[in-house]
Amino acid sequence: MSGRSHEEDSPVSQTTDDRKAVVRRCLAAWDDGDMETFDEVYARDLTVHGADIDGLADLEELHATWHEAFPNLTHTVEEMVAEDDRVALAFRLTGTHEGEFQGIEGTGASIDVAGMAFFRVVDGTIVEQTAVEDDLALYEQLGAVEPPSA
Amino acid sequence: MKRPVDAQTPDAEQLVREWLDVAHAGEYSRFDEYVSESYVLYEAPVPEEGVAGPQGEAHGPEGVAEYMRLVHQAFSDMEISIARLLAAEDVVMYEGTMSYTWSGARLGIPPTGDDVEVPFMEVTEIADGKIEAQRSYMDRLDIQEQMGIQ
């Protein structure tokens, strides 16, 4: 929980709408491969819970991996709620599998995976992120595992 | 889809927290106090057979009761802990951990008695004082790995 080192009382006055806007910019940066914005919206020492990601450099690497595999990656916002410095997001992730991903060569398969994420936004940057995606759905859509009902 | 404010509304939060307790305690006869007739649970593991609604969905208080009966047959000592909850007027988003013991047959596979602990996130939509939709997000690959299936 290194994110706790950030002060709860932000010196920059931000509304929940401002914090939602930061999250929207973050999603656009993921989709467009805009690394300048990516570096602006994420704190350098951000904490990513539930994933083997240590700081912004690791996240940039993950971004590159996804973009090589799914060049037309698109996050679609389905629901967003903000309260204090937290933003919750439900999204769909769509794209075409064109490059190698986790050892699976490009299949041309279309993916459509639902996910949710929680962010903590302080001074206009994301300092904490937790996401849940259904990797089984992703691998099923890439033809790497059999659907359970088959 | 425009909401007036992202202010915390205890009613929506309270409804959702009570519903989670009632659902996981298996108080099936009370389900219709919390979810509407047109309620839909969207949760990837929901089977097509034996549950009202297509694969991945449980429709109405009856459908979700049918699904929760199947869940309780396969898993015991189910505990839900909510780490964070954000509430708007008509939508509640939360993240937490679900833990249970695999004690009954699941997907035709005999139980191992393994303990499973998995992060989950949910979006719950509320209309006219009842829950209208509930979308559940979890990584089934993580669950299957813990159950020794994948």
What is the secondary structure topology, with strand pairs?
The complex is a heterodimer of chains A (150) and B (150).
Chain A lengths: L15 H17 L2 H7 E8 L6 H14 L4 E10 L2 E11 L13 E13 L2 E9 L1 H7 L9
Parallel strand pairs in A: 1-5
Antiparallel strand pairs in A: 2-3, 3-4, 4-5
Chain B lengths: L9 H16 L5 H4 E8 L14 E3 H15 E13 L3 E12 L12 E13 L2 E9 L1 H7 L4
Parallel strand pairs in B: 1-6
Antiparallel strand pairs in B: 1-2, 3-4, 4-5, 5-6
Query: Which chains share the greatest interface?
Result: A-B, 27 and 30 residues
* Number of DSSP-assigned strands of chain B: 6
Which spans of chain B have pLDDT < 50 for at least 5 consecutive residues? 1-9
Bin the helical content of chain B.
Answer: 25-40%
Q: Could you give the order of strands across the largest sheet of chain B? A: 2-1-6-5-4-3
The geometry of chain A reads as globular
Oligomer: heterodimer
Distance between the termini of chain A: 41 Å
Q: How many whole angstroms does the radius of gyration of chain A measure? A: 16 Å
Residue-averaged pLDDT of chain B: 90
Distance between the termini of chain B: 40 Å
Describe it for me?
The complex is a heterodimer of chains A (150) and B (150). Chain A is of the alpha+beta class. Chain A starts with 15 loop residues before the first helix and ends in a 9-residue tail after the last helix. Chain A is globular. The longest helix of chain A has 17 residues, at 16-32. The model of chain A is unreliable at 1-7 (pLDDT under 50). In chain A, helix 1 packs antiparallel against helix 2 (35-41). In chain A, strands 1-5-4-3-2 form a 5-stranded mixed beta sheet. In chain A, 30% of the residues lie in helices and 34% in strands. Chain B is α+β, with helices and mostly antiparallel strands. In chain B, 28% of the residues lie in helices and 39% in strands. In chain B, strands 2-1-6-5-4-3 form a 6-stranded mixed beta sheet. Chain B is globular and about 40 Å long. Chain B starts with 9 loop residues before the first helix and ends with a helix. Chain A binds chain B through residues 16, 50, 78-79, 81-83, 86-88, 90, 114-118, 130, 132-137, 139, 145, 148-149, and chain B through 6, 8, 44, 47-48, 55, 84, 86-88, 91-95, 107, 119-123, 135, 137-142, 144, 150.
